[in-house]
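I'll show a sample.
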Amino acid sequence: MTTAVCAPPPPPRRDPLEFVTVTFCDDGGEQSDVLARVHHRPFESGRPVRALRTYKGQRNFVGEWWSATTGDHVGFESWVERDRLMELDFVRESVGIASQPFRLGLRVGERAVAHTPDYFVRCGDGTGWVVDVRPDALVGEHDAAVFAATGRCCEAAGWRYTRVGELDPVFAANLRWLAGYRHRRCLDSAIAAVVAEVLAAAPMPIGTLAERCGPPIVVLPTIFHLIWIHRIATDLGSVPLSLASVVRGRSAA
């Protein structure tokens, strides 16, 4: 008679987020917990988990960007980060942005690794978006493994994750120009209404649009602000922005 040998039951599967620790700062100071219990927190409203430091001989540029999205300053640690932060401030999805939002305790192979993403973005649909900024040429094998582990962690948390490098030069130059008009003080509602009415007939160059809506020196700040807030649109990725750039109307929705 053969005696059946029963294999031991497999161990219960644990939520992968229970293996990831998160250290963050709020009004109560530094806090730490597993991601499974805190991934719903409003990290876009928190304080940086580490301070941005400057020192003599520093090769990277550290500063703060005034964000039209948040109405406050957000830190960056290089020109590449500054440009990407500017882009995050511009994109329609963003409703909140935080720099150095938390420190993740990850496993990369057999090693325990601490990694602080560069930005946490809250999107308009309520989802989270974690962004790391590192030029492709500076991503080594270990860095790639850390970014991959961060991406898996974010996916499990229901967040979007991207690792980005340098912004396209033409797009970056155009955004820098438009960013000069990102503050709401550049918007004249009466002029904006005239711009919408004129553009309803047909797309046209910025210079022509400005002339049809009033004195160009008065009208142009509103036009540039309307492009920044996506009320009107033009090609920002192919050629430098100029008075010859053709703009078209677009719904604010």
